[in-house]
From TrEMBL:
Residues covered by the UspA domain: 158-278
Organism lineage string: Bacteria, Pseudomonadati, Pseudomonadota, Alphaproteobacteria, Hyphomicrobiales
Pfam families for the chain: Usp
Protein name: Universal stress protein
Homology family: Belongs to the universal stress protein A family.
InterPro entries noted in UniProt: Universal_stress_UspA, UspA
Amino acid sequence: MMMYTRNAYMPIATYPEVVADGAVLAATSYAAVLGGTLHVTTFAVDIPYMSSGLGDFFVDVPGLARAVEQKSKAECHRLHALVQEHAGKGLDVYCTTKTAVPGGVLDAAAGQARYFDVALLPWSGETMVAQDMAQAVVFGSGRPTILVPPSARAAALKHIAIAWDGGRVAARALGDALALLAEGGRVSVLTVQDEKPLNGSNLAGTLASSLENRGIRAKPITITLGERSIDEALQDAALTEGAQILAMGGFGHSRIRDFILGGATRGIFTQVRLPVLLSH
């Protein structure tokens, strides 16, 4: 029988800001739980020369650009050491650095993620670069992407929650999540009752029965929004049930974008309280 190794990918931008170390460490620990290898790519910025308009007499534009580039490269080296030290001997880690111009990092990360089984993204709601990276990889890579907040606790995935609306993309998220479920694990099937019209009744129960027939313990759960947003309701239910990860993909491009960035009317970033697997 052919042996299969799961390869996880973690892209980290170092410009204009860097995600918090706590999130990087949490994502590294999560990779160890998934097994296989972790491939970390840090991106060092390359700033093209631009004239200040006054020449370089008053402002040393090239000097400022080189200083920023040097700081970015130093962060790449620091992050490699941080991940390697935290991983220890229990996880095979491969670190590389790529150079990209501002604005080129996101496309590069999404393209590189296609060559791996899963992308692990260190998450911080206060760091814009984390939201930008999440959007790029979720929508551009075609691979399952897990947002890992600093609060995530690494342990074998014995319990996953799936946001289920019976749609095609939700089915994709389910498949991606089941591939990570530990032997003997269970699934909480979450269906939001009053958020949008659903194509059928008892969708959660139907999926739970299907999973049970495959030998996977499953529990159907119907959610009502009330005054909560969709992301709040799903995370509340997942945490109440004790799930270790929430998988979702049935809410389309705009829904996932709202989940990452927060609703436009709220003007705040969404708080990710447990690891979230997004499939698109």
